[in-house]
Design brief:
The chain has four helices and three strands; from the N terminus they run H-E-H-H-E-E-H. Helix 2 crosses helix 3. It is globular. Strand 2 and strand 3 form a beta hairpin. It is 52% helix and 17% strand.
Length: 71
Amino acid sequence: AALATVDANPAIDQATLAGLIAFDRATITGVVDRLVAKGLVTRQESTRDRRARELTVTAAGRRTLRAVAPA
């Protein structure tokens, strides 16, 4: 759910992602940490708010989404 939501909302911040998929902020941090560690998502400091982190799906993340998408 998190990977697909980031793909549908490029440069989404972690707090907004948490709200969209009904995770609390502590849980979403762990989820995003694992996606970043697997190379599926990048996390960058927001240009609008230094406290926020913007998420973007990588090419590997898009391949993963295509692989698991229903035919």
